[in-house]
Amino acid sequence: MKRWFKRLMITGVVLGLAFAACRPIVQKMTQPAKPNWRTAKVTTGRIVFDVRATGTIEPVLKVSIGTFVSGPITDLYADFNQQVQEGELLARIDPRLFAAAVARDEASLDTRRADVQRVTALYKQAVRNEQRAVALREENEDFISPREMDAYHFERMSLEAQLRVAKAAVKQAESALETSQANLGYTEIRSPVDGMVINRLINRGQTLAAQFQMPELFQVVPDMEKKMHVIATIDEADVGRILQAKETGLPVEFKVSAYPDEVFEGEIEQIRKNATTTENVVTYPVVVAAPNPDLKLLPGMTAQLSFQVEERQDAVRIPNSALRFFPLNREQVRQEDRQLLDGTDDEEEDEELDDAHLSEEEREKLKDKRRRRHVWKQEGDLLRAVPVKIGLSDWKYTELVEGDLEDEDELVIGERDGS
Q1: Is-contact 131 153, C-beta < 8 A?
Q2: Bridge partners of 71?
Q3: What are the pLDDT digits (tens) for 39-65?
Q4: Residues β-bridged to residue 374
Q5: What is the mean pLDDT of residues 102-118?
Q6: How far is Cα of residue 409 from the mean position of the Cα atoms in its chain?
Q7: Where are the alpha helices (DSSP H) in 198-344?
Q8: Phi/psi class of residue 179: alpha, beta or left (left: φ > 0; alpha: ψ in -120 to 50)?
Q9: 222-312 is classed in which CATH architecture?
Q10: What tens digit of pLDDT does each residue of 255-296 get?
């Protein structure tokens, strides 16, 4: 009996100790879990408001080299990516037919000039004959009859006209020779500028036909290492901001896929007025000039541009994730701020919907109201709302214009469990 009672006492003591040890765990499991908030700090630094766009890299000047004459390509001296100088020979068209035309026209010119000499001699003879007849008639009218005088006179006039015709024929022959010589010169395809050959559209032995349309042979880009253009397409809604960016003189940053880790800089050179409408979307081309000393920017590359419109130096910056956060559980918010979780007033919603019908003064008030937001700070186990007025914004931060926030303040951006 004593042994049984002793065992019972030991069992009771063990159960009591086990209950005492498990009680705090049970209480913790039955109580609601406290949220583990994720936070981000308020910082001080630079904020840049920008406009994003896509563009294409193009050379400042692209010279297309063609030909006026037809024939087979006998020699080819230039290739892709070759640096050429102004006047350098790039290719040659078979010159034999054009050289023969030059020789023919030279002979024709010689014939015309000889004809001028012949008619000039006859004209001078007719002038002297007329002068002798006049002298004889002045001495005695019976020596030369009026009919003979008319013959001398009109012979001289006829030869004078023939001489003018012969001289005009010389000019025609000279023009024909100049044309033939020019055509012979066109058989040598030369570069009109210093630059790089970015495209070659012919091969040796290829026959060109330039009767109806001038064929394009080469494309040469001058000064590609000095400057390249980025032609961006800007929506009409952002053109005003691009004009502002040009006035402020802030740089334009862009990236290309070939160098994803490198940021290139340029400046707005031109905002063109020729609008393009595609599916009721109006866009304007904007030209950005960028240096290209290493020849990394090549024609045809696609660029992702960032037009810096406005900036703030040493601004108090609120993380955008803190502005997006909004608590869903009323029990996690202190009593004074729980009315913020009830939603907006119906009148305010109607006012926003009726924005198009407001006056300018009312719009400014509404715009000011939209800049007023709330961020949340942890105060003990609860969250406290901090009213703020925001300003300039970029992809990561928003400028604090008004509000009870300081540098290094921790703002709630979410819970650790991902909600």
Answers
A1: no
A2: 208
A3: 999 999 999 888 999 999 999 999 999
A4: 387
A5: 96
A6: 42
A7: 239-248, 320-324
A8: alpha
A9: Beta Barrel (2.40)
A10: 999 999 999 999 999 999 999 998 899 999 999 999 999 999
Establish how many alpha carbons lie within 13 A of residue 190's alpha carbon, considering only the half-sphere containing its beta carbon: 11
Phi first, then psi: give them for residue 118, nearest 5 degrees. -65, -50
In angstroms, what CA-CA distances link 410 with 211, 219, 271? 77, 59, 43
* DSSP for residue 250: P
Q: What is the mean pLDDT of residues 117-129?
A: 94
Ranking 263-277, 305-319, 363-377 by mean pLDDT, the lowest is 363-377
Task: Report the greatest alpha carbon distance in the chain.
Answer: 196
CB 415 within 8 A of CB 36: yes
Residue 328 has pLDDT above 60, yes or no: yes
Confidence at 346, pLDDT banded by 50, 70, 90 = very low
User: Residue 241 is encoded by which pair of tokens?
Assistant: 């901001």
pLDDT recorded at residue 347:
41
Task: Tokens for 347, please give them.
Answer: 């009148």
CA 83 to chain CA mean position, Å: 24
Bridge partners (DSSP) listed for residue 256: 259, 303
Residues sharing a CB contact under 8 Å with residue 384, sequence separation 6 or more, in sequence order: 334, 337, 376, 377, 378
User: Hey, how many other C-beta atoms are within 10 angstroms of the C-beta on 63?
Assistant: 14
pLDDT at 28 over 60: no
Torsion of CA 39, 43, 49, 51, to 10 degrees: -40
Contact between residue 411 and residue 322 where contact means Cβ atoms under 8 Å apart: yes
In terms of DSSP bridges, do strands 207-208 and 259-271 run parallel, antiparallel, or are they unpaired? unpaired
Dihedral sign computed on CA atoms, order 39, 42, 46, 47 = positive
